Amino acid sequence: MAAVVVLTDRPATSNQTWSDDLLRQAGYDVIVAEDAEAGLAAAAEGQAMLIVLRSAGNTLDACNVCRVIRTHPVTRAIPLLVVTRVDDPYTRDQFVRAGATAILMEPPRATLLLRQVRRLMGRHAAALHRAGDQGASAASAV
Fold first, then answer.
1. pTM for the predicted model, two decimal places
2. Can you tell me the distance from the alpha carbon of 35 to that of 64, in angstroms, rounded to the nearest whole number?
3. What's the CA gap between 2 and 125, in Å, rounded?
4. Which residues contact 87 (CB under 8 A, 6 or more apart)?
5. DSSP 8-state symbol, 101
6. pLDDT tens digits for 59-91?
7. Is the separation of the CB atoms in 95 and 70 below 8 Å?
8. What is the pLDDT of residues 32-43, one digit of tens each?
9. Which of 34, 72, 71 lies closest to 53 in space, CA to CA?
10. Domain containing 35 — which CATH number?
11. Read out DSSP for 46-92?
């Protein structure tokens, strides 16, 4: 089962638990972490295929978490979906510069959330497959 690690910087609201439940019903293993450190550990242990970062509006803190995810050797290649309440071009640019793969506004529509999760995880799976093929080719050439 594909694992989705959800990092949150605030207590979960009904919208967030709804989205976690939606992902579980769609067949994803959802691991909720209360801070970046726990999220990194969960991503490393759980073979995460996607990290979802919920940001309450403290963009600086959320961008710092994005940077940590992007510099950590275990999580740097994992897609990072930011779900935020803040909707302005400057904030979106800050998240992208910090390493977000995609950004959704909170609360996300069910169809949009599932489509984005499938798209990001599909890309990640394809990249892992290509990397495995290249590794096998390099090993056989030796």
1. 0.85
2. 12
3. 10
4. 105
5. S
6. 778 899 999 999 988 888 999 999 998 888 999
7. no
8. 887 778 888 888
9. 34
10. 3.40.50.2300
11. TTEEEEEEEE-S-HHHHHHHHHHHHHSTTTTTS-EEEEES---HHHH
Cα–Cα distance for residue pair 47/118, rounded to 1 Å: 16
Give yes or no for a contact between 65 and 36, defined as CB atoms under 8 angstroms apart.
Answer: yes
**Alpha-carbon distances of 136 from 74, 96, 128, 133, rounded to whole Å:** 21, 33, 12, 5
Q: Are 84 and 91 in contact (CB under 8 A)?
A: yes
Given this model, what pLDDT does residue 58 score? Answer: 74
Distances 104 to 32, 66, 89 between C-alpha atoms, Å: 18, 15, 13
- Tell which wins on pLDDT, 27 or 138: 27
Q: What is the pLDDT of residue 34?
A: 79
Q: How much is the average pLDDT of 88-108? A: 93
Looking at residue 54, its amino acid is R
Q: How many domains does the chain have?
A: 1
Domain that holds residue 83: 3-141
pLDDT(2) > 80 = no
Which among 116, 64, 115 is positioned nearest to 94, based on CA atoms?
64
Location of structure tokens 């579980």: 24
